[in-house]
Amino acid sequence: MLQKDLGEIFRLQTQRMNGVLVSVTKVRISPDLSLAKGYLSVFPSEKSIEIITNINKNKKAVRYELGIRIGKQVRKVPELVFYNDDSIDYIENIDRLLKQDAEKTSRL
Description:
Number of strands: 3
CATH topology: GMP Synthetase, Chain A, domain 3
Low-confidence stretches: none
Structural class: alpha+beta
CATH superfamily: K homology (KH) domain
Largest sheet: 3 strands, mixed
Number of helices: 4
Shape: elongated
Number of domains: 1
Strand order of the largest sheet: 1-2-3
Helix content: 40-55%
């Protein structure tokens, strides 16, 4: 539920920023529901550090928006912390390395 709602909040906020896409890849929540760690994938990845830093600076506003959406469903809206999920970049790097290796093997 949190992943879907956070994704919608970021989708609406990034509509104003042409060429930037922020997706929520996963959300981990503490057992007492007081802290939610959101992992965000940013496209283009060159802007990811800047955008994640900006989101963490404005996490109170994001928490407020989330509270409006889920306030009736939970007793307390969790504190939010956001991290960069660079797994897509990692996968692309592995794919690129495998293609390079395949090209070298085919030349032999």
